Amino acid sequence: MKKTIVRISSSLFPRAFSNFAYKKLTNPQSHKLKQNDIVNMDSSTKSRFNFKSTEIQVYEWTTDAKPPILLVHGWEGQAGNFSNIISRLLAENHSVIAFDGPSHGLSSKNGGTSLFEFAEVVGVIIEKYGVKRIISHSFGGVATMYSLAQNPSLAIEKYILLTTPNKFLDRIETVAEEVGIAKRVKKKLVNRLESELKMDFSKISVADLSRNVNVKNALILHDEFDKVLSIQESKAVNDVWPACNLEVIHGTGHFKILNAEIVHNRIITFLAT
Fold it and tell me: How far apart are CA 161 and CA 139, in angstroms?
C-alpha cells in the first residue's frame, strides 16, 4: 500500500521524487561497525590521501609478504566489513590494504559520490601500492572491474569476487523499487545521472567489462539463495569471462559471506595456488 501511494505521488510530483531517489543513489548511508570490527581496524596503520575534493581513509597491515591484498567493500559498506577476513589473511602472513570509499566510512562526505568516482579511487590505490591481488564484495566488484577495464595496464594476478552485480542499471532498478517511484520518474532519474556523468548506463555491465580487464585468475563465490543479489548476476559474468570460475556456496546469504569460515578457507586456498 505504501509503495502504491508513493508511486502515484511520484507521478504527480516527478521532480521531487526524482531528487529523492538521486540523493539515495549518490549519498550512501552509514552503518555502525561491531565492537570487534572496530578493534581490528584500530590495529591497522591508518592514513588519508586527497582525492579530488575528498579525503580517503586507508588502513594497512604489513607483514613480510608484499605487495598487499586489496579489499574493496560494497555500496554503503566500509573497510571494517572485512574484519574477519583481515584476521584470517594476517594469520596466513598476508599483507593487507583496505579503504573506505568516497562518502563511505571515515572518508570525507562532500556532497555524495558515484560508481565512477569509487572506481577511480580503486585505480589510484592499485597503482600507489602495486596491488596484484584483490578481494571485493558486492558492488565493490563493479567499481573494481570498471577501474581495471579503464586501465588495462593494471595487471592483477588473482581476484576474488564475493558476489557481484552485473548490470549497473540494476542498482537503479533496486533503488527505484525501494523508493517505489513510477517508471516515468525512474527514466527522469536515469537521464539526469547519464547527463551528469556522460555515460550510457545500458552499456555498463561487469560481463562486458570482463572482456577488457587484465586479470590472470579470478574466482566468484556466490550463495545460491542470496536475497540481495541473484546468483544469475554472477553466472552472467562467469559465462563470458574465461579467466573466471564461479563456485556456488550455501548458507551464507549476501552479508554473512564475509564472515563464513568456508569462504575464508576457500580464499586462502585460492591465494595459495
Answer: 10
